Amino acid sequence: MIRLPMRPGVIHKSARDLPVPAHLADWAATCASFSWPQVRGELAGTEAGVLNIAQLAVDRHAQGPHAHRTALRFLGAGAAVSDVDFAELKSLTDRFANALAALGVGAGDRVFVLAGRVPALYVAVLGALKHGSVVTPLFSAFGPEPIATRVNIGGARVLVTTEALYRRKIEKMRASMPSLQQVILIGEGDAETRVPGTLDYAKLMREAPAQPPVIRTGPADMALLHFTSGTTGTPKGAIHVHEAVLTHFATGRYALDLHDDDVFWCTADPGWVTGTSYGIVAPLLHGVTSIVDEAEFDAERWYRILQEQRVSVWYTAPTAIRMLMKAGPELARKYSFPQLRFVASVGEPLNPEAVWWGQEVLGRPIHDNWWQTETGGIMIANTPAMDIKPGSMGKPLPGVQALIVRRPEGGGVQVVDTPDTEGELALRVGWPSMFRGYLGQEERYRKCFAGDLYLTGDLAKRDADGYFWFVGRADDVIKSAGHLIGPFEVESALMEHPAVAEAGVIGKPDPVVGEVVKAFVSLKKGFEPNEALNLELLGHARKRLGAAVAPKEIAFLPTLPRTRSGKIMRRLLKARELGLPEGDTSTLEGGA
Ligand code: ATP
Ligand code: MG
Predict the structure, then answer these.
(1) Is this prediction's pTM over 0.70?
(2) Regions of the chain short of the pLDDT cut 50
(3) Is 539 part of a structural domain of the chain?
(4) HEC-encoded secondary structure of 83-118
């Protein structure tokens, strides 16, 4: 029999024990006094009617005391390290904005970026924002089809990519992308002489005027078009405006607790909204140094980066944490992280096991937070001075109102006031980074709202202390013998078992009870799938969850299907189990 550690339901924290005073020391008082206009006032220096994400993120600091502070530290896939300070970043992004102007790219034209995490990607994103273009970063591991689909949905005019990616993924498809007028290649130079129909990034930058471009965007102008992760179906293109920068700033302060001398590392790729909002914009807004690692996940490399770069605030994802857990604590013990003071996670539910792992292995618990591509920034979070209830997403941030609602059969929406009652998570409209549309899908956008509420499509509950608990995506909830079962609860119980590295749970149609719970499990190093372990896991889950909720079947898989942004794709587990079509797999990790 396995022995489970006895753990309390709360990790108590006190503002006094923190190495630096938390920005959100008093949640209730800060929420009460908070206002978005006040945040706008703080981001001073903006002319009336003018607001631009890149100007606030870069130029504000380039002209102030942080001009020669490292803004972005790029760790190359090998050993190379290159630093760009705020002043340099300003002149590079000024030039890129001017280069776009010289190409005749107009305000609002779409600029897509497809590259690894290299300096030119960051310059292109920020420079294009300065110019007033609409930016879409794509994940560089996408195959040709997903790229072409997104380029066409977004009506991309300019694509910034590398010669290698262009040859592998774009060249043959170019004729099928009629909106694309200019392709700019990042590389060693002279790309345009080798690759017909392209322009050379280095040459454009050399020839572009150096003077600062005139910033013309206003708060309601479209800035970013981000595609969702495609976890539940075909990715949607969420439209964001420049005003979103107010959320990036406020959440950088309250959810990530960024302080002036922090070294911040967001591990998400800019191809996903986290990698843009928090991998680019929020840390720059706060004038802190951000680490950008070009290489893919590697447990040892990541521990080394945390140690060598003296990362103080780390923002990562459950999938990465589970992989570190899978690699075993011995590896972590070879490194030390005395400067690491705050660790946060987003993207999927964070199992309590992972919160505790942080506490035990990194010396800091992991702070879960919740948001979506549609919300543009963090909405609900565990913050430094707040007690953590492992398994909870935390509380709504200042300026955010979250509620639990039900949609009764007859129509309309009812707010659920009773604590611990499941319903759909809704947000009251009014935070600046709310998406302003799904590109080309007006009806779908409209359906996300009821009055002044945005309905998130996630199920959750709120406890008596105001903490929110994720139950599952509306699409993933299992209906079994009259019970509604959230996969997260079952997965978290399985994860408590020392053999389990990851779990994905689905409902399998059953003529008697509607659906039965089936779990797919991948094992940690040193454990083998066999009948005895299967029975042990079934027994463990039954003991933890009761017979009504525990899985009836468990299957072992070497790894679970996940999106390239690291989310378990339960819909694929289900389609495969039932022999149904797999649907959109454009974001499937390891896919085309
Ligand atoms: P698609 O909408 O295309 O199916 P997606 O919803 O996974 O993809 P994202 O916008 O990247 O695309 O992800 C947001 C979703 O991720 C949330 O709606 C929620 O289901 C899940 N999520 C994010 N953070 C958390 C968290 N801390 N706890 C639980 N779920 C989370
Ligand atoms: Mg979604």
Answers:
(1) yes
(2) 592
(3) yes
(4) EEEHHHHHHHHHHHHHHHHHCCCCCCCEEEEECCCC
